[in-house]
Amino acid sequence: MTILQxxxxxxxxxxxxxxxxxxxxxxxxxxxxxxxxxxxVGLLLVESVVLAASGWTCPxxxxxxxQGAAQGSVADIFLPKPLADRIFPVCGTAYGVxxxxxxxxxxx
Length: 108
Fold this sequence. Notes:
5 helices
């Protein structure tokens, strides 16, 4: 797999998972929890397990670095470095808030 292919794949995965974060948050805010909510939450849970298992570094980043890409989170995704450096804190916090809102909606 070339660095370009890794970057393209990682960018697509990033946008899909970011959409899952936004959708989960939306569902928690408006209280519309359905099958798609659980699919989004499940995909994010799988991503969390994968990241935890690989030392909180995306396996695609590791693969890109093995192929010769420069070290760093921006090396394998088409995003400006200031945005790429804030993916985990922003998306992780939003996902945590989404889970809390979904739980609150289900329990109330």
